[in-house]
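hi!! sorry for the late reply, been swamped w classes. u asked for the two structures so here they r. pasted raw, havent cleaned anything up. first the sequence of the first protein and right below it the tokens
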Amino acid sequence: MVIAVDAMGGDLYPKIPVLGAIKAVNEKQIQVVLVGDEPSIKKELENCKYDAKLVDIVHATQVIDMDENVASALRSKKDSSMRVCYNLHRDGVVQGVVSAGHSGAMLAIGKFVLKTIKGIDRPCISAMLPTLREDDRVLLVDAGANMDCTPEHLLQFAILGDVYMEHIHRKENPRIGLLNVGAEEGKGDERSKKAYELLKKCPLNFVGNIEGKEFFNGDVEIVVTDGFAGNILLKSVQGAANFVKEIISKEIKSSQIAKIGAVFLNPVFKSVKKKTNYAEYGGAPLLGLRGNGIVCHGKSNQEALLFGINFANWAAEAHLVERMEEKLVEYKEYLNS
């Protein structure tokens, strides 16, 4: 498998994407293609040790900025590093694309170049988050791609999430919950009620509505919602985690006794930091594309890029797109009901 890495994506390009790619080469023996400004990439590679047979460079003349208008980028930057990555994937040169760049552009360009899987109207962004259960995680779909969704879209997201959890995380028949304002059937707006009925009729392991306060309990493996609510939930969680860390840090610094206690609690703090660190969860797969596109956080370090590249490799090896296509054919009657 060969993975294309957008060397001009993220807040610290090309350094971090290049270092992440080299870690993937050295630690996982994954073959990569670094896409972007060739002189800049070569300069970063000068200080790296790696097997040259596993690293290629493809020059791209344009960069999509993090705050750039998506429609403008799609229309006017046809030689952007992100666009070139997807072109390589479409042409079969690589089997996956990883970028820490503009997530909206990654989704829009991926949909334009690769198209969507038959039966899927809109791709969605997925996000893995920790739960209170040891070594268990929950998948959030959609985490920010689609602001306005129909009940049918939510059903499609659930099916994509089901295949993802089964074939990538080995969760057989994962439990699925619909994010809502109450756990009881009949709660929420009309769209939520209709989505509930569609999910209930489908052979998926749908267990009902789930409230935001139950998200981390580990009672479900997949939480389905629209991108508007999903993105608010995701960023609220990130903000709350940082808030708690800051409060604890300030309280420890304010007391000599607390400082002494913190020394003994240091292993606990490290464990909590690890579980709430975005780098531990790598990238967010764009589910529903006819290919493997992985979006990493703009502030990703090389470890996070390594995880994203490794995930793209897993998805390609697991033939994730083909498994999704098969599932959608199997559930065709429920999608068209």
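now the second protein. again sequence first, tokens right under
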Amino acid sequence: MLDSGRPPHALLVHGPGGIGKRRLALRLASAILCIDPRSGPCGACRSCHLLDAGSHPDFLRIEPAEGESAIPIGSVRDLIDRFTLAAERARVAVIAPAEAMNQAAANAFLKTLEEPAGRATFILASDAPGRLPATIRSRCRKMAAPAPPDAEALEWLETKTDPAIARHLLALSGGAPLAALELGQRHDKEALLALHAETAALLGGAADPIEVAGSWRKIGDGELVLSGLFAVLGDLVRRGAADPDRLHGAVDDVVETRRRWLEVPGLNEPLLYEGLALRCAGTAA
């Protein structure tokens, strides 16, 4: 793509979260702006040094502010102000996660895509491209970024964290190595192993659902609890360790619970945990 001499006006890099799409987007931006690109950015020219220092005049990175979940219209207006005037030199903006643009920001960005100026390139990184307006998706060249093979991800992760828990972290993160690394940095090894053991005991009918639900609440991370339950169920499904209909029913239950967790504000967490634990108890017995 870069060897063609002209990168696309807009590129949508999409795939699972936690696999390095932002890093890929930034490397592409470096290669586009590099004075002497070959197989990628040279790392030695003035442009590469400016990017490393975060002071390149022709590069803009747009993401939610710290503590916020959305990209506001003000950030897109800043992009428009800097990228509207035509210029001979290349300019690149990386927007990640692209689906975080609120409605007003997405509408303003669409106008920029419809009326490109000069040699501007917009690189969008997204975990959920379906949440982007179809009008934006249709104006981007798409680049799928799949998760790496499990063996490759595990080999990398074992060099970054405790090898004894690397496989477990990878299962909890759905095979995404960067997400697995972050998970291991947020939670201690004993807590993660205890979550796995309690969840397995619950599914095997060897633990009290209400007590397990209480332990889940103490963890204080609903996403981790659901990921842990999903990982154990997935392993049981792959091994054919129990009735497949019951296992798949529990998997569907976890997926639906996660959807409600993300979409419905103000859920009663104790009731949600207890209901899920009671429904899943003994699934693999």
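hope this helps!! also noticed smth abt the second:
The radius of gyration is 22 Å.
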